[in-house]
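To: structure desk
From: M.T.
Subject: fold request, one chain
Message: Could you run this one when you get a chance? Sequence is below, nothing fancy, just the single chain.
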Amino acid sequence: MWLHHIFEVILCQIFDMIKPEKENCITLRDMKASKLSGNVFNMLFNLNKFMAFETRDPFLIRQVSYT
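Reply: Done. Structure tokens follow.
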């Protein structure tokens, strides 16, 4: 049961990141238009990069971008 919940959470996160034109499917056009498509691929295929993305510090990222 908990695995099903985790899958739903990740799927929701993917849809939030891509923001597809249709709410029930993601097309290649949607992937190409999204600046976060690389992160979606990492979520699906590279656990280490996904964990780095999930545990990043937004304040540190903002501070680095200002310098």
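Reply (cont.): Helices lie at 2-18, 28-33, 37-45, 47-54, 58-66. Let me know if you need anything else for the meeting.
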